[in-house]
Amino acid sequence: MIELQQLCRSFQIGDQCVHALDHIDLHIERGEYLSVMGPSGSGKSTLLNMLGLLDTPSGGEYRLNQTATSQLNEEARATLRREHIGFVFQSYHLIPRLTARENIELPLILAGIAPKQRKPIIDRVITRLALTDRAAHVPSQLSGGQRQRVAIGRAIVMKPELLLADEPTGNLDSVSGREVIELLEELNDEGITLLVVTHDQAIGVRAKRELKMIDGRIASDSARPAITPQLAP
Amino acid sequence: MRIADLLAFNLKLIERQRLRSAMLLAAIAISVMAINLLTGIGEGGKQFVLGEFNLLGKNVLIMLPGKKETTGGIPPLTGETTRDLTLRDAQAIARLANVSAVAPLIAGKMEISHHKLSREAFTIGSNRAFFAIRQLEVAQGKALPLLPFEQGQAVCVIGSKLRKELFGPKPALGQWLRAGDSRFRVIGILKDKGEGLGFDMNEAIIVPVANAQALFNQAGLFRVFIELRSLDGLQQSQQRILALLKERHEGEEDVTIITQDSLLSAFENILNTLTLAVAGIAGISMLVAGILIMNVSLIAVSQRTREIGLLKALGCPARTVALIFLSEASIMALSGALLGILISELLLATARGLYPTIPFTTPFWAQLGSALIATVTALLFAAIPARKAANMAPVDALLDKKAGQA
User: Where are the domains positioned within chain A?
Assistant: First the structure.
């Protein structure tokens, strides 16, 4: 489903060129559950933004469902995001003036879906996330865990194939953090491809496939054990 | 995005961010109001001045003694023998074919007293025709009687303010006033009316012209108002009057005739300056309004860069993002402009109530212009930052990179 070939992303900071992503090759199958770990500045968020088409590569190619994305314009990338990708951010990024229900509804509205068709979809998502009695509340009236559930609801309401979560538990206490990660894992069990960027070792190891990043490179990938020189038997 | 959803989204924004919306609405409304009020007051002043000139009918000529050279050139160095304009001259004019009425005028300040109260008042000597020509109405009693020019009568008509000052609450009709060494019986009181051509008729006393000649001990007339039967042949009538006076004054043309048109054209410079001043005031207030709206719009949009980032992450095309912000700005601008016009109309109506003589009205061009300028600036300065944010990489907008790097 996802194919990265020699993907690069560099930033000019002052007169220094920083390689946030340094020739990355990565292959992700549909339905996989990955965690990306690594120290700050190792490029894990840049990788997530790249996979989410929020950022454009400086070099290399990214294929999403066999579509080469590097040549696409912003409009086409927006359409791909809308139809295939859901985002969960550390700071939720909910619109403060909209209620929980309206925040979840937003992607459907932007996609131009008729109100009649929207209603059953949102109802299902709200029930699924156990937010029924909080649906009419604005984010400031919700707890952190509830806010992140609303954000997850918004991410999955368009039924994307890929769910990208950037430190989804970073602002949460351990109990709500675990609830959120369990919710994401349930969604993965239902078939969604899940990629979680995290600092938290305990969360990282729950993934079926763990990536470790250092200095813009994938230092280890549990699916492809490092080829260490082995002594001949 | 569907139109209904777009509207709902914007209305929610306006409804749930009341402070921000109120600020933007107030900025636009105040700007539009300022433009409308200022031009309304300026226009009111201009119309007031114009109205003053229109007090004289178009078919009324004013004759002054002496020749005013308006053609330039070297002024006559020899001393001019200015003959007086006499009542006989006025009588001769009254006999001309196209002349319907003639009002001779002598005017000056005179001490007027009643019992112990006394006051210096503007004293006018004229006749019955003067009332019609100057459009003076009598509130109580009657106007001066119809008399031959040379015949006096000890009666007077006084302005409402003079009446109040001399008689207070007591009735004035039939009472006697002293002016100089003559006495006059009050036979009429003028209706309250503002100033006209510099005379405050509310403070004036009008007596028959023959009496005024005696009072001021002066035979010469200050001026003569001539009312023509019709406007056709205005030029010819003017020529005939001048010819008549030349004949009567031993071949010398020593009077000047002023028409309303010539008076207006003489004041054209002043009126043009007034119009320019009004336009200048409008221009400056539009500029200030534009900058005010610009700032509030800029703040409103830059506060929402993260929201734009989110919309883009959710797959909203740049075009839709721009549409959301533009439609919101138009709703705000239009309702703000409407509110501003409404408030300014209300205030001007109040001002008209307080000062009925000055016609405070905002010209249509100012209303349209202010609404247009408000809408265009609000749209422009919502569009520029919204466009910029919409064209940012989604990741930069989400993190609001501008703020982050600062």
Answer: 33-56+71-221
